[in-house]
Every structure is written in C-alpha cells, then in structure tokens.
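Session log. Operator J.P. requested a structure for one protein chain; no other inputs attached. Running the standard single-chain path with token output.
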Amino acid sequence: MAVSSENKNKMAFALMVGIIYILFGIIQMIVGLGLESGITDALLIPADIFGGCVLLVIGAIFLYGYKELKAGTNDGVAFIYFGILLSLVFVVIYLLIMGADALCTYGLGMEDLESWTPLDDVKPGLYLGILALMGFLAWKDKFTLRGVSKAGA
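Structure written below.
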C-alpha cells in the first residue's frame, strides 16, 4: 500500500518529534538519578524522573504512530494526533504550575518561593510543546470526532 504525501509528512513529523521526546525523557531521567552534565543546565532540564517518564510516553506514542503509518495502516494517524494532544495537555499543566508559582511569589509573597523566577519552572515538556503546537496547527482541520461511533446508538 502506497503512503500518501500527507501521511509521509506525518510520518516524518512523528519520527522527528518522537525521537526528540525520547532523548529528552532519557536525559531528564538520568539527571533525576543524579548523573548530571553541563548541557542539562543549558537545556533547562530539571532532575525529574517522572517528568522524564512523561516525555518517554509521549515519544513512544509518536513513534508508534510512525510505525503504524510505515506499515501501511492509517491507524497511525490517530496515535500521532493523540501524541500532539497529550503534549499540549502537558504544556497547559506546566503553564498552570508556572502561574501558580508566580501567584505565590509575586501575589502572596510566600517566603518559600522568594527567589523563584519563571525559568525555574521551564521544563522540556513546555518548550517541546512548540513542536506539538506546530503539528496541531498544520493539521488542525483533521482533529474531529467524525466517524467516531456513539456507544449504544
């Protein structure tokens, strides 16, 4: 079965984004285990094992979508779309955390967060979400529930 040009673009996107998410997830987990290098500070990668696991899961979803499309099944598109949406959900969560910390610091003047800056809450899931946003904007017309059956109908 030949792969359409639109699906070729989705395959390239899923492969690239999946690999990037997996790499950042592995790095974040390694830093969480205490094995730090100088590059992690430059990439704003905190020591967060669970955050690394989230990135690994998102990356695996993208790579599975790539694998399915490469095998010729159109079901891989759903995995790519779900990876995009999951990435964007975590961007919103990270932004809410950042907003809550800003409120605590600047609005409530909490002593625990006196030296807090917005850069303290920047995580790879936040800036990698830009890739997911680009994918969403490229295929936003395709994000529909058309064709989804209603249970019991």
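Operator note: The helical segments are 5-32, 38-42, 49-70, 76-107, 124-127, 129-138.
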